[in-house]
Design goal:
This protein has about 120 residues and is of the alpha/beta class. About 40% of the residues lie in helices and about 20% in strands. α3 links the parallel β3 and β4. InterPro entries: Bact_response_regulator, CheY-like_superfamily, Sig_transdc_resp-reg_receiver. It comes from Uliginosibacterium sediminicola.
Length: about 120
């Protein structure tokens, strides 16, 4: 990963996207952050560029985060790392994420959780 990570934040909540963006910027002020409110926007973003990290919400209108993760990871321009950030902490959801190679993190959005997600950039 370069010192200027490209990060995609996908969440249907504008407030969550704003919080995540602010917390990323506090750690990586030079990060280039793209936002998407739903799956189609996220897919278009991945078509346009390659991201070091994609942070996905689970529960969104239309395609859920796990299905979106599968779609993004199958793309030729797949993000290097995909993380799921969700309040849905059911074991089945976590297992499905792991099966897709998606790292699972629990909401609420907080500085320690975002720090954990950002730490995956160095792995």
């Amino acid at each position: 990963m370069s010192s200027t990570p490209d990060i995609l934040v996908v969440d249907d909540s504008k407030v969550s996207r704003m919080l995540i963006r602010a917390m990323i910027a506090a750690t990586y002020p030079q990060a280039r952050i793209a936002e998407a409110a739903e799956a189609n926007q996220a897919q278009a973003a991945v078509e346009a560029q390659r991201f070091d990290l994609a942070i996905l919400d689970m529960n969104m209108p239309g395609m859920n985060g796990l299905d979106l993760a599968g779609t993004l990871l199958a793309h030729a321009n797949a993000p290097q790392r995909v993380c799921m950030l969700s309040a849905n902490v059911q074991d089945a959801t976590r297992l499905r994420a792991e099966e897709r190679g998606v790292l699972f993190f629990r909401k609420p959005v907080s500085e320690p959780v975002i720090a954990e997600i950002l730490a995956t950039l160095s792995h």
